[in-house]
C-alpha cells in the first residue's frame, strides 16, 4: 500500500591506502573518518557523493555502509525467528557487480518490486527496477519484468526508491537532471495483465530546481502518490509533493507541496515518506530539536479528498539525542506509524531503533513536540480520556 523509501544510499570514496572505515579527502590527500556525509560542511568534497572525487588518489568507490549493494540480493540468509520462515532469496536475472539490487523494496499482494539504482543499462548508475511475482502462494517468486526509464541516463539512480499499489509502480530517480543537476524525478508504471508494465507518467516538481533530489523517497496509496525531495545537495530544508490522478492513472496532477511548519536549513525533510488513506508521514532525520541530527517526523492529513493537506503532528523520540537520525525511515498503516532512528545508541554506538506511535482520537497531538501550539480537542474527548485515566488509576 505504501512504499518504502530505502535510505541507504550515500556513497563515499574509500581510499585503497586508507584503513577500514576511513575515506580519502581529495583536496588534502589524506585519510579521515567520515561517518555520514551530513557531518561535513555543505559543499565539501571530502566525503564525495559519487565515486570520482578522489580520482588519481587510488579510490575504489566503496559504499559508506560497507555491506550494502555489492551485487546484493533481497531476502534473508535462511535463518528464522518466531513464526516467520525464510522461503526464497531474490536476485536479478542479469545481476552484476555494484548494481545495488535490493537497495529499495516494496510489496503488494503477490508482487515484489526491487530497486537496483546503480544498474548500468542506460549508462553508469542509470538504475533499474525488477518486478517479481508469486503464483504459488509465496513459495517461489519469478521475475516478470525489468523496468527502466524511457529517458534513462547515467547517474539518474532510477530505483533508489520504489512503491507499489495494485497495478501501479512508482520509481524514484533523484539524480535525473531535467531541471538541473540532481533535480530528480519519479516514474509511474502500470500493468493491466500483471506481466507487461508501461511507463505512463514522469513526475517532476512544479518548482523543480538543481540539487532538490526529488524522488529520494516515494509512496503510493490508491490514486495518490507522494514524492520526497530532501535537498541534500543544497541548503534547503526539504519538501514532499503530492500528486493525484482522477482518470485512473492516465495523468497525475500535483495538488500539494508539503513543508514543515518549523522548517530549517539542512533538516532533510522528505528523506522518507509514507501514505495511508488521508494521512501522509514525512521524515526529517537531521532536524535539530533535541540536538544536532536528532531528527523528527511530521504527520499531514487531508479532510477534503486530497485537495489540501494540513500538518497535524510533529513526532520526536521520547529519548531523543544528538545524531539519532530519527525519521530516516517511516511507515504507516491505519492509526499506527513506525519511525526508524538508525543511529540511536541503546544497544551500542549506532545500533539503531524504531519507534511506534498510535493515533488514538487525535492523541498524536499530545505526544508530539509541537502540541503546545495547537488547540485542545473537544470537551467530549477530554472527558472520555479523563474517565479512562481515572479507571486505570482506581
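Q: What amino acid sequence fits the structure above?
A:
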Amino acid at each position: 500500500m505504501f512504499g518504502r523509501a530505502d535510505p541507504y544510499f550515500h556513497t563515499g570514496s574509500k581510499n585503497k591506502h586508507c584503513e577500514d572505515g576511513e575515506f580519502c579527502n581529495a583536496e588534502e590527500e589524506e585519510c579521515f573518518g567520515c561517518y555520514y556525509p551530513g557531518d561535513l560542511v555543505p559543499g565539501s568534497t571530502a566525503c564525495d557523493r559519487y565515486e570520482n572525487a578522489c580520482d588519481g588518489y587510488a579510490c575504489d568507490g566503496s559504499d559508506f555502509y560497507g555491506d550494502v549493494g555489492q551485487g546484493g540480493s533481497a531476502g534473508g540468509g535462511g535463518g528464522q525467528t518466531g513464526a516467520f520462515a525464510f522461503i526464497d532469496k531474490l536476485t536479478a536475472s542479469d545481476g552484476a557487480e555494484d548494481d545495488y539490487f535490493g537497495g529499495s523494496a516494496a510489496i503488494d499482494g503477490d508482487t515484489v518490486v526491487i530497486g537496483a539504482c546503480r544498474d548500468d543499462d542506460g549508462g553508469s548508475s542509470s538504475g533499474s527496477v525488477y518486478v517479481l511475482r508469486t503464483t504459488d502462494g509465496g513459495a517461489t517468486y519469478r521475475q516478470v519484468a525489468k523496468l527502466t526509464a524511457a529517458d534513462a541516463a547515467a547517474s539518474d539512480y532510477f530505483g533508489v526508491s520504489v512503491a507499489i499499489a495494485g497495478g501501479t509502480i512508482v520509481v524514484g530517480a533523484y539524480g535525473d537532471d531535467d531541471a538541473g543537476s540532481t533535480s530528480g524525478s519519479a516514474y509511474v508504471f502500470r500493468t493491466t495483465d500483471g506481466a507487461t508494465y508501461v511507463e505512463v507518467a514522469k513526475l517532476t516538481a512544479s518548482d523543480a530546481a538543481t540539487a532538490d533530489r526529488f524522488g529520494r523517497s516515494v509512496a503510493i496509496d490508491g490514486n495518490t502518490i507522494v514524492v520526497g525531495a530532501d535537498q541534500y545537495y543544497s541548503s534547503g530544508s526539504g519538501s514532499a509533493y503530492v500528486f493525484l490522478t482522477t482518470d485512473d492513472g492516465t495523468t497525475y496532477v500535483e495538488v500539494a507541496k508539503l513543508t514543515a511548519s518549523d522548517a530549517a536549513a539542512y533538516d532533510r525533510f522528505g528523506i522518507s515518506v509514507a501514505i495511508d488513506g488521508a494521512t501522509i508521514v514525512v521524515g526529517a532525520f537531521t532536524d535539530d530539536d533535541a540536538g544536532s541530527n536528532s531528527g523528527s517526523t511530521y504527520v499531514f492529513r487531508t479532510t477534503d479528498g486530497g485537495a489540501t493537506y494540513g500538518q497535524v503532528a510533529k513526532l520526536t523520540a521520547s529519548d531523543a539525542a544528538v545524531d539519532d537520525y530519527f525519521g530516516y525511515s517511516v511507515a504507516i498503516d491505519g492509526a499506527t506509524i513506525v519511525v526508524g532512528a538508525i543511529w540511536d545508541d541503546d544497544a551500542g554506538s549506532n545500533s539503531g531503533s524504531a519507534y511506534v506511535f498510535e493515533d488514538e482520537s487525535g492523541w498524536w497531538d499530545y505526544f508530539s513536540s509541537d502540541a503546545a501550539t495547537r488547540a485542545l480537542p473537544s470537551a467530549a474527548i477530554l472527558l472520555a480520556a479523563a474517565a479512562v485515566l481515572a479507571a486505570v488509576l482506581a
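Q: And what stands out in the fold?
A: The CA atoms of residues 15 and 59 lie 4 Å apart.
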